[in-house]
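Researcher: Structure prediction, please.
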Amino acid sequence: MVDSDSPSSSGQLSAFLVGHSIIAKPLSPLHNNVVSALLTVVYVKCVMELGALIRIKYGNPELSRKFIHLCACSAVIWWPLFDTSHWGWRLNITVPACMAIRLIYKGAVLKDPEDEDVRTMSRTSSPSELLFGPLQMTLIMVYVGLTKFMTHTGLIIMASFVGDAAAAVVGLHYGRHRYKVTFGGEKSVEGSIGCGLFTMIGIFCYCYMCSIEMLQMRPLLAIGITSAVVEATALKNWDNVFLCIAMELMSLHLPKLI
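Model: Predicted structure follows.
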């Protein structure tokens, strides 16, 4: 079976704390989920600070933007900490939900090109850019966190964003063979290969860290190739949405590919 009808996670945080004598008694499921959510807040705060440092050190907003992109989709590594026996596991969307509101405010209302988030998460310091890739990413994380929690589908969608980030970085530094698709941006063959390869690596790592059954090589290759094609041909600024749709459709056919 590829996906279960409901999320499954035992809440490893409480067990870890008790096992290492940090606390005497196990946390209640609610407290376990609240603490797990707070840990994701700390994680994202550190990511944002590191992203700002990368932008300052290298003077390239694309690097900081993709670093944050990669770390955001990797927030799934915190999923196993949540206890699904209590509704509080849905607190896993705390950070992306708050970030979505923040991005809408800064991109559509504040519109300050000197704002730290604008400078770190946009290519051209244009506030409106926050309303495309970054906002799409947070909304997809909310959708996945509520409906695809601890499933292959959720991990596949998030792993495709690893490939998306890799495509930009690989293309920027190693792209030699350039091409452009109608209605899309300029791409490179090297970047597209990087997208497919790192999508597969992302799936492998996420499945391992979430203790979810590994995919066999055939479906892994099919997903990697599909992510590369979709990333290369998607409408400019809408690749996150197209990747999410494509990966969810691919997951429906996984039983046939295994």
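Model: Residues 112 and 181 are 32 Å apart (CA to CA).
Researcher: Thanks, that helps.
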